[in-house]
Amino acid sequence: MQNLNVLVLEDEPLQRLVTVTALKKVMPGQVHEAASGSEALALLEHCERMDIAICDLKMPGMDGLAFLRHASQSGKLHSVILCSQIEPILRQTTASMIRRLGLNFLGDLGKPFNLERLTTLLTRYQNQRHGLVTALKKSELPTLADVIRGLDNGEFEPYYQPKVALDNASLQGAEALARWNHPQLGVLPPSHFLHIMEHHSLLDRLFWQLFDQGLALRRKLAQKGIPLSFSFNLHPSQLASQTLTESIATLLVLFQVPSSSITFEITETSLISAPASSLENLVRLRVMGCGLAMDDFGAGYSSLDRLCELPFSQIKLDGTFVRKMGHHPRSSAIISYTVALARSLGMSLIIEGVETREQQERLLELGCDIAQGFVFARPMPESHFIAYCIR
């Protein structure tokens, strides 16, 4: 772990002592402490930069909320960890406030003090900083000409993230995610190329390359006695195509893949003002026997309306609810509600973003069956996924 500059803002002496002592044991760097917001601001003024502030909210004088507002204006504070006993819904709103102040919210430590949770949040900061440094080392982002060259040379390929049963981690299917094997920059995620592709109408070329490779792998696995279900992401601009469903049907026949084993994932927000041609394609895909998953369920503002109007067969619950589950009771309630909703509608439910065994166990208690996330497996190239399937 790299050296960090951390500020502990806590008015209760014993809690502050416990936090400071733990920090000095688990991380290299300098630990500052303050008993009030004004004292914390004075410390901030005399340092060049503060990596993280571990911040209580309720205290005499200048409270944590006021400190965060002033700290954001100074430009010296990067990230915040909350450590407060106020109601979960108030902590959640405070987290939103922190983000809108332009600060990086790492998570909620809660009270009483939890060393394992603190270590997790510090590691999260280190991983984020490592990712930023890596990105900064890449002096140039790919250009349009570079993207076209990559498409022409077949450098784009699907990475497969398994979907597994929560109770025993048995493989249920996989989602195909776009990756670019760049000859100089290595494996790049969609954030490096999707914007360029969308702006220059190249998403179709990407989709058909990934779909071809995915169907070929599905056929290969079926021949080995592993007939998995695969899901692919569709962009709203592709849904408007008049040839979309015909082309999909042709490839399914060509690769001898049953339509029932293919699901297309579509974000709910992309369908708010979808044209009639997009809705026609949704109907045609379902008539063909393909599945339709509402991706990032709960991330938009009209999820229930979309479920009523459109022929979805699957719900994928946005991972933010899982991440908040341990610290915000309402998130658990929403997950439980979504389980009941999916069952009453006759839809399958996939839980996204499962990262810990504790989350896995809690989701099982809430009645969830299938999930995907780093605790089970990260997205992997075809050769690794085949090995994963036949292990």
TrEMBL record:
The keyword Cell division does not apply. The modification 4-aspartylphosphate is found at residue 56. The keyword Nucleus does not apply. InterPro entries: CheY-like_superfamily, Cyclic-di-GMP_PDE-like, EAL_dom, EAL_sf, Sig_transdc_resp-reg_receiver. Residues 140-391 form the EAL domain. Gene3D superfamilies: 3.40.50.2300, EAL domain. It comes from the Bacteria. Residues 5-126 form the Response regulatory domain. It holds the Pfam family EAL. Keywords: Phosphoprotein. PANTHER family: CYCLIC DI-GMP PHOSPHODIESTERASE PDEF, SIGNALING PROTEIN YKOW. This is EAL domain-containing response regulator. It comes from Pseudomonas idahonensis.
